[in-house]
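Retro notes (design track)

What went well: tokenization of the new backbones is finally stable.
What didn't: we kept losing track of which sequence belonged to which structure.
Fix going forward: every design gets posted as structure first, then sequence, in one message. First example under the new rule, 127 residues:
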């Protein structure tokens, strides 16, 4: 069995692409391939690493998260996936209209005018 261990020195972005069951039913595989193909097309392979995972935002499926900026994207279609690579990864500009969360040094916050659901609190109350 072969095990892959990537050397990520020099990597500028890590994109976590949701491939959980909800995301897969809503185009997660297509979004994954669109991101990876556009990264290759723009010769960004050395700067961008992608990982398939479940991001826990099923209502916003499919979801992609870009680090180090901490931007969470919702409903990533092939078109949005291409824009994430072209405008965010290559161009440095977030797609504000597609954000669920962005990072502001205090933590993740929902952008103004977000239509995404708030979700379930991760911290259990003592009540």
């Amino acid at each position: 069995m072969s095990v892959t261990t990537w050397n990520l020195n020099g990597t500028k972005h890590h994109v976590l692409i949701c491939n959980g069951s909800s995301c897969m039913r809503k185009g997660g595989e297509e979004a994954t391939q669109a991101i990876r193909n556009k990264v290759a097309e723009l010769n960004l392979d050395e700067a961008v690493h992608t990982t398939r995972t479940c991001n826990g935002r099923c209502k916003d499926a499919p979801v992609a998260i870009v680090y180090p900026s901490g931007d969470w994207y919702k409903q990533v279609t092939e078109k949005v996936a291409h824009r994430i690579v072209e405008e965010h990864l290559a161009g440095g500009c977030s797609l504000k209209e597609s954000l669920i969360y962005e990072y502001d040094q205090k933590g993740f916050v929902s952008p103004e005018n977000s239509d995404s659901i708030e979700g379930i609190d991760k911290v259990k109350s003592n009540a």
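Added context from the reviewer: The chain has one domain: 13-109.
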